[in-house]
Design goal:
- The chain is mainly alpha-helical.
- Among the domains are: 2-89, no CATH class; 99-175.
- It is 66% helix and 4% strand.
- It is built from 26 helices and 6 strands.
- The protein has helices spanning 35-49, 60-67, 74-89, 99-109, 115-120, 128-141, 145-155, 160-176, 180-193, 201-217, 221-234, 239-255, 259-275, 281-294, 298-308, 315-327, 333-340, 349-361, 365-376, 383-399, 403-419, 423-430, 440-451, 455-472, 486-495, 500-506; strands at 2-5, 8-9, 15-16, 19-26, 55-58, 71-72.
- The strands form 2 sheets. A 3-stranded antiparallel beta sheet has the order 1-4-5. A 3-stranded antiparallel beta sheet has the order 3-2-6.
- A hairpin with a 5-residue loop joins strand 2 (8-9) and strand 3.
- Helix 21 packs antiparallel against helix 22.
- The two termini are 52 Å apart.
């Protein structure tokens, strides 16, 4: 931001010299001034610095002057803004000549490790532009983003374009780690620095995409779809980002049991990623596996997870393969569990998979695993992990006819689900009390405990929102609505206690 004294004229022709604040935003074009002003500035920069920058001249002071019919002397304006541009751009060249940096950026696009190459780069040999790209890559692979963000933010103070990229990287990282409270706070901070009307279309697309992901993680799937559909509107020619948006939108449709619609959106993402030869296509293949798993089509789920393994090898994919194999009663399910053990289990998902395996193969080990991991080790677990673990511990006690202990664990499971905004899953699991031959006294005790959670109210609100998905968002994501509404059918039958044992088997929400 710089202060300039500009020549201007009032409506009656009087010459004035107002002081105005002017900011040059690099890296994007937005023409708020006469076309010849931008053309002249670009030609002067091109001749002087041998570069063709994109820039956007921002000044709220000038906007106010123009609103009051005060006309700028654009010759004076060009001369003074040109000096500002030269100051910004004299050591800034928008190209990368360093071969190691080029290679690192290429590997990043391919989602491959590039840290070793990055460490070989002598950053003293880089241009200003290259140094900024280098620092963005350093932050991207940093294992201490929470501690280093402020430091990197200071580095990019003079280049708001790169500062935005820094925020986008960090917000996405927090969302990938499911730390949506932190990402919500960072989104608000971003909004205070960068008003939405000062973002270009691609930045708006990324912005709404990240907000959509954040709302999804907070259980607000309608707000998630609203923002993801806005992201889709702004995405223009960035097909890679469009595939990301489709991928994220798929989750809201899947979680509401719109399986046909979810598959159609996911296949849109897959088609784009395959056409661009992006390694992220395996993430979409895994996502499709998840749709089939929730629809209790375990064989299709397993086959998709196997295909995804060709491009993804981490604890998550082995956990998915393990749970599919468990439900299919495949003997190799234990092999996938052992593969997953080779990776760090930060959130505890593998612990739940082990409980699930024990439940179907050696039920006497369920409580043993639970006590060891949850009580003796006192590890951190995500609420959804605690919820499903408590659910299968409850079912274990029900099978052992220890109903009093079982309902305590089932109640704990509901609390965990609700705390993590998994309202449908909480309702689904609450029906387990009717799946087993449990004496009425214990059913009544459980229903009494459940009242304090207001689950019936929460699921009714969820169903109202659910109905609006088909109504508002199928068209926005260019998909056809099937005649099936799995969730409403499930909800109506469950309310009437119709064949609950088979109803529970109809979907697999874990």
């Amino acid at each position: 931001m710089a202060k300039l004294k500009l020549k201007a004229y009032t409506f009656n022709g009087s010459e004035i010299y107002p002081n105005v604040e002017v900011f040059i935003s690099l890296g994007k074009d937005k023409n708020n001034y006469p076309t010849n002003v931008y053309h002249t500035l670009k030609e002067k920069i091109k001749q002087e610095l041998k570069i063709e920058p994109k820039f956007y001249i921002i000044s709220k002071d000038i906007d106010k002057l123009r609103q009051n019919n005060i006309k700028l002397d654009y010759n004076d304006f060009i001369e003074k803004v040109y000096n500002l541009l030269v100051e910004e751009l004299q050591d800034y060249k928008e190209e990368i000549s360093n071969p190691l940096l080029k290679r690192a950026l290429h590997l990043k696009e391919e989602k491959k490790d590039f840290l070793d190459i990055l460490n070989e780069i002598d950053n003293n040999s880089l241009s200003k532009y290259e140094l900024e790209e280098y620092n963005l890559l350093k932050f991207f692979v940093s294992k201490n983003k929470d501690e280093e963000f402020e430091m990197y933010k200071t580095f990019f103070t003079q280049n708001l374009l790169k500062l935005k990229e820094l925020y986008f990287i960090y917000i996405k990282d927090l969302e990938d780690r499911r730390e949506f409270y932190k990402s919500s706070k960072l989104i608000k901070e971003f909004q205070n620095i960068f008003p939405i009307d000062e973002l270009n279309d691609e930045e708006k697309a990324i912005y709404y995409y990240l907000i959509g992901r954040n709302y999804y993680q907070r259980g607000e799937f309608l707000l998630a779809l609203e923002n993801l559909s806005l992201a889709k509107e702004y995405v223009k020619d960035n097909k890679k980002l469009l595939a990301d948006i489709y991928n994220s939108a798929t989750n809201s449709f899947t979680d509401n049991l719109f399986f046909d619609e979810a598959l159609e959106i996911a296949n849109k993402a897959l088609k784009i990623r395959e056409s661009l030869h992006l390694p992220q296509k395996y993430e979409t293949i895994s996502l499709i596996g998840g749709i089939y798993f929730k629809d209790s089509k375990y064989k299709l789920a397993y086959n998709h997870y196997k295909k995804a393994l060709e491009g993804i090898e981490d604890s998550r994919i082995y956990n998915y393969l393990a749970k599919s194999a468990i439900m299919l009663k495949y003997k190799n399910s234990i092999e996938y569990i052992k593969k997953s053990e080779q990776y760090e289990d930060k959130q505890g998902f593998l612990v739940f998979i082990k409980i699930l395996y024990a439940f179907y193969n050696n039920i006497d080990e369920v409580i043993e695993i639970y006590n060891k991991e949850f009580i003796e080790k006192n590890r951190y677990f995500e609420d959804v992990v605690k919820a499903w673990s408590n659910t299968f511990v409850a079912c274990t006690y029900f099978q052992k006819e220890n109903y009093e202990t079982g309902i305590k664990y089932l109640y704990k499971a509901l609390k965990n689900f609700i705390n993590d905004k998994y309202i449908l899953e909480a309702y689904y699991v609450s029906l387990y009390i009717f799946v087993y031959d449990i004496p009425e006294k214990y059913i009544n005790d459980f229903e009494y405990l459940k009242e304090s959670l207001e689950l019936d109210k929460l699921i009714d609100e969820y169903i109202i929102k659910h109905k609006n998905i088909a109504k508002e968002y199928a068209e926005k994501f260019d998909i056809k609505l099937s005649n099936k509404n799995n969730l409403l059918s499930f909800y109506e039958k469950s309310k009437n206690k119709i064949d609950l044992k088979n109803l529970i088997k109809q979907f697999s929400l874990f």
